[in-house]
Amino acid sequence: MGNLTAREKGFMYVVTLLIIVVLGYFFGIRTLNNKYDEYVAELNSLNERKAYLDQLKENNISMEKEIEALQKNCSELELSFIDKLETECIEQYVLKTFEEANCPFLISIGSTDVGMASVNYPDGTISPDGLACLQISVSYSSTDGFNVPQYNRNPDFTAKAEVPFATSVAELKDQLGKEEYSKRYGYDEFIAALKKINSDNPDCIKVDSFTVTDHNGVMTLNAAINFYATNLKNRISIDDRKDPYTFWCGDTGVDTKGGFIGFPYICDNEDSLWFGVVNFNLEDQAAKPFAAYWSELLFKETYENSGRDIRVVLGIENAETETTEEVEE
Question: What angle do CA 273, 274, 276 make, to 5 degrees?
């Protein structure tokens, strides 16, 4: 190496430098270029992934909005029906509506479950969800324009009345067919009550039918009213409404110490609301399956021969009381 000329030494330095550059390129720059290409490719892949996820996020937001809209529509549809049919609440609502319309003279009320068609899936299975219908049938009476009407204890003819029975009857008997009693009412009030019921919730309450018959100066007013509800396995909405046909709005804490159900012939229980009231409503004798045939026949014959006075049939002494004598004067 020491014998080399300066030119040769310079050439060796150049060759060595080229070797270093070549080695640096192969083991450094080229490797970095390869890494760079890999990073660029990975970056492009991540950008594509990000674009996909951003689109998916937008789709999710749009989907959530659609789900919320569908849930809202489903809730509105669910709430257009009654959540649960409770017969006692619905009957109380119907009776109160007629009473408030000044049509209180109830003859009878009843309820019937109306069968509704089931929902079938395309595969032939039956849906657990379905429609339910309860029909309330009511029958009311109009007044006859002559007799003094009485609703509950108004006028009060019981032994607990503030005005004695004889006094009340004496004042009212001369008004038969006069003043407010001369106008027969009930029909217009009956129709008004039906319109009120039909408009309270047109989606789930429908007046199915009504009929009116007239006999002996009195109209009998009949109506059938349908209440619709849904039986849903996976209900979305929560029905927290307080409609009068969905929860009990009637009287509570009623004193029944003296008995409340049933109207005996004559009540001698001072705690009863029937105390002092005589049951004269015996025109249509109900069958008595508990009684021997001869006993029922004897009762009817005695009633017919007694001048239709239940007190005579029951053997109560002095049936012609002072009260009766005062009324007949």
Answer: 115
Closest alpha carbon to 114 in 264, 255, 265, 229: 229
Sign of CA dihedral 191, 197, 201, 206: negative
* Residue 82 to residues 38, 101, 248, Cα–Cα distance (Å): 65, 24, 14
Cα of first residue to Cα of last residue in the chain, in angstroms, is: 165
Non-local CB neighbours of 307 within 8 Å, separated by 6+ positions: none
Cα(98)–Cα(104) distance, rounded to whole angstroms?
Answer: 6
Token digits of residue 141: 């009476």
Task: Evaluate whether 148 touches 181 at the Cβ level (below 8 Å).
Answer: yes
**pLDDT tens string 314-328:** 776 554 444 443 333
Residue with tokens 């619709």: 228
Q: Which two tokens stand for residue 116?
A: 């509704």
> 173-207 pLDDT, tens per residue?
878 878 777 888 999 999 999 999 999 998 889 99
Question: Is the CB of residue 227 less than 8 Å from the CB of residue 80?
Answer: no
The pTM assigned to this predicted structure is 0.66
